[in-house]
Amino acid sequence: MSASADAIVQRGIEAEDDPYRLTKDGVMEPPVGWRHSLKHLGPGLILSASIVGSGELIVTTTLGATVGFALLWMVIFSTFVKVAVQIELARWCISTGQPALTGYNKVGPHVGRLSWINLLWALMALSKVLQMGGVVGGVALAMSILLPLSGPPMGATSITIWTVIVAVGSIALLYSNKYSRIERGAGILVVIFSFITIGIALGLPFTPYAYSMDDIASGLSFAIPAGAVGAAIAMFGITGVGADELTFYTYWCIEKGYARHVGPNDGSEARQRRAKGWISVMYKDAFLSWVIYTFGTIAFFIMGAAVLNPQGVVPQGNEMITALSRMYTDTLGQWAGTVFLLGAVVVLGSTLWAAVPSWSRMYVNLLAEMGVLEWRDTAARLRWIRIFTIALPLIWGAAYLFMRSPVLMVQIGGIATGIFLLAVVVAVWHLRRTETDPRLYGSGPFNALLVVSSIAIVLLGIYTGLSALKLV
After folding, report:
1. Between 392 and 147, whose confidence is greater?
2. What local confidence, expressed as pLDDT, does residue 275 receive?
């Protein structure tokens, strides 16, 4: 068989197995109960890998170092309040087989081929270049301290070399874009460092940096200290499920097979039953990821508040990594500095591991909505995804080398994310009303939570936007 014939056969196989094509061949009965559902969970691990990186390690810890325990309530609220919106968007996705940006483009008015929500998404994506550049820079800084390649560990040359290595390494590891590899890598990376950090946070009461229940209670007083507004709104946008994670979760739900297993919408009762079953699996997946990133977020915040804040140490600039490492060296000894640096590489690397393929899919979906390609053309979609898999790490690395301030870069992305959450809520309710089968709606308590979550996101999103204007 010729090379061209092989390529045609391969494209045919890819199209047949394409999770974005709903066919009768892909139908599968849903599992019942947690035990049978475990092997079908996974999109939430990719979500957690993204969340536990830049948001938790950088922004949440910096907030704790800045204000102490005062904003603990917002940390908890931020992780909880967005989950219902995440689930509702995924419900629509599983029931229709469509990814988020395709849905966003159905909400008018439009400018040309793009809806106002996708235009706003494009603006958020530009700010995310800075945020992801900050993540690339964080990994490069940690590696430069561990293994300086030229000159002093924090020297510009060593950091530049490591930035290039991190960007090129990300491309090499993720070029295949196989869902199973991305899910497996994300799970390993996120679990290891999160549980270590949670263990250290729980052990702080037995160190010189002990915190008390009074400290915890003071953090639940629903107040924002003067001077902490900027850090607080960035944290709300980026911790927990951000607008970008809400969006790309739909792609991973589809690529895990949830929508494909439901099958094409033939209006039958069997199809409705399958849809309810796979949506139930998605509930379990979302809950598991929520547990992981919530406890990870709280642990990072407590460590920043208990260890860094009393010493007046606030991570900033290229000293971010060395400042953050003091959470470990000051509690466990100097030997723990190396452990932290390795952990920082793991946790920030997990963000890159999840972000590169996720953002690649979203960018390609946007191009499809613009008419550049046909989204259901499997070969064209995969080709464009690989193009972005190469381009994005290089662009993010260049952004860091230009700005060289990881904390500020991540915070800028967080503010933009908080504002875009408003648009996501609008889209979720529009798609729920116009395309989601009412028979697939959630229970009464869930619908009530969705209303409360939506109102909270709208109010805090407006507050975020107004506060951002004041900061400008």
Report:
1. 392
2. 95
Query: Among positive and negative, which fits the CA dihedral 115, 120, 122, 125?
Result: negative
State mean pLDDT over 369-394.
94
Give the span between the Cα atoms of 265 and 246, in whole angstroms: 24
The full DSSP string for 199-259 is HHHHHGGGSTT---HHHHHHTTS----TT-HHHHHHHHHHSSS-HHHHHHHHHHHHHHTHH
Q: What are phi and psi of 465, to 5 degrees?
A: -65, -45
pLDDT of residue 354 exceeding 70: yes
Q: What is the structure's pLDDT at 12?
A: 42
Which contacts qualify for 145-150: CB closer than 8 Å, 24 or more apart? 145/321, 145/322, 145/341, 146/338, 146/341, 146/342, 146/345
Span 67-87, average pLDDT: 85
Strand partners, 278: none
Beta bridge partners of 115: 110
pTM, rounded to two decimals: 0.84
Please say if the pLDDT value at position 58 is more than 80. no
DSSP assignment of 350-372, as one string? Answer: HHHHHHHHHHHHHHHHHHHHTTS
pLDDT of residue 467: 62
DSSP one-letter code for 70: T
User: Are 194 and 344 spatial neighbours (Cβ–Cβ below 8 Å)?
Assistant: no
Question: Which region, left, alpha or beta, applies to residue 213 given φ > 0 means left and ψ of -120 to 50 means alpha?
Answer: alpha
What are the angstrom distances between the C-alpha of 62 and each of 218, 441, 454, 464?
18, 39, 27, 18
Q: What is the mean pLDDT of the chain?
A: 81
Query: Rounded to an integer, what distance in angstroms lies between the CA atom of residue 153 and that of residue 354?
Result: 28
- For residue 37, give every residue at least 6 positions away whose Cβ sits within 8 Å of its Cβ, in sequence order, or none: 31, 280, 281, 284
Closest CA to 61 of 355, 314, 318: 314
- Taking a C-beta distance cutoff of 8 angstroms, is the pair 65, 304 a contact? yes
**Cα separation, 351 vs 368, whole angstroms:** 25
pLDDT above 70 for 315:
no
In this model, does residue 67 exceed pLDDT 90?
no
Q: Rounded to whole angstroms, how far apart are CA atoms 74 and 68?
A: 13
